[in-house]
Design goal:
The structure is a homotrimer of 138-residue chains. Chain A is of the alpha+beta class and 138 residues long. In chain A, the strands form two sheets. Chain A has a five-stranded antiparallel β-sheet, with helices on one face. Chain A has helices at 22-32, 57-70, 88-97; strands spanning 2-10, 17-20, 37-43, 48-53, 100-106, 109-110, 117-122, 129-137. The longest helix of chain A has 14 residues, at 57-70. Chains A and B meet through strand 4, helix 2 and strand 5 of A and strand 3, helix 3 and strand 8 of B.
Amino acid sequence: MKSLTEHLWFEVPHRRGFVNITDTVARLVKKSGVKEGLCLVNAMHITASVFINDNESGLLHDYETWLERLAPEKPHSQYRHNGGEDNADAHLKRTIMGREVVVAITEGKLDFGPWEQIFYGEFDGKRRKRAMVKIIGE
Amino acid sequence: MKSLTEHLWFEVPHRRGFVNITDTVARLVKKSGVKEGLCLVNAMHITASVFINDNESGLLHDYETWLERLAPEKPHSQYRHNGGEDNADAHLKRTIMGREVVVAITEGKLDFGPWEQIFYGEFDGKRRKRAMVKIIGE
Amino acid sequence: MKSLTEHLWFEVPHRRGFVNITDTVARLVKKSGVKEGLCLVNAMHITASVFINDNESGLLHDYETWLERLAPEKPHSQYRHNGGEDNADAHLKRTIMGREVVVAITEGKLDFGPWEQIFYGEFDGKRRKRAMVKIIGE
């Protein structure tokens, strides 16, 4: 069994933002030498997400609006977590978007449908944060 | 390490619908010959979901109503993604339901609790779409 | 390839509650002898969740309030699933929180970010229920 572990670093300049990491993950799959296996990509911080959807700017804007409706940032006082913090909404937004994705590796490549792209979703940015890529297989 | 890769095809006749794929996945686990491992099942399209829940018609109806409340289809104009599309709500509904499931394989079988069933959830149907089954283990 | 399969049992005394299972899962990783691999933890019941977030009591209270807003328990009559049941909301709440997590194992340990903790989320308690831990790797 082969395995590869890498951390990806981000510093999103705003509180919220989306970063397309598909090419980076694809390069790591190649580097791993794994032909058949699984690729886990997860946020290592609990106010961020890794998810798969469409690389379309209108949709990414819709996500921002929709998440703000389901888990509004303000007023900060509505959340008990915000005693010493102001990021409770980021924990909830990431819960909807998901912590992680698991992608099949087939014949040495990410085995994707036509529009699947991997995103890092930041909900409490302006600081350095990490995601993990873990690949196992043969 | 053994592995198996198969695509499942769907053409749901309505915009939204749920298809129970548990027996199909169970057959593929048997076909793979894997006794101990993991089974990934994921939608390959970004307006569809693979999820695990109860095979109960009342609950599936509740999902439809509830998703329509959290991410309404109409008016289409409320979403920027709908410039050239009308399926922004399908991307959001699939986000709540999830892209994928990972199921343990133990002694050659899906290792399930008493009521767990795997569903393909379609939110933008009336076309041919795929899900993937990837099995790895020994 | 090595593998380990264990079931964790819970009997949460209230309808809803969160149980931190991080230390238990970490012990099972050690017991498995796996140095590089993946650890799947999933609820085996469809009204419960396994998720990763912060072990902070204010946040756990915020989850309770927020889930009750997105998928209210009452009136029970609002859900068709509640013909013979009263737990439709529990199926929906678990859908938002997620069925499972997949965690990387690196150098024999759960490869976690600084605040990641694994929780069992119960949404229809007062009975014995299970979660599964499945570890594969080398």
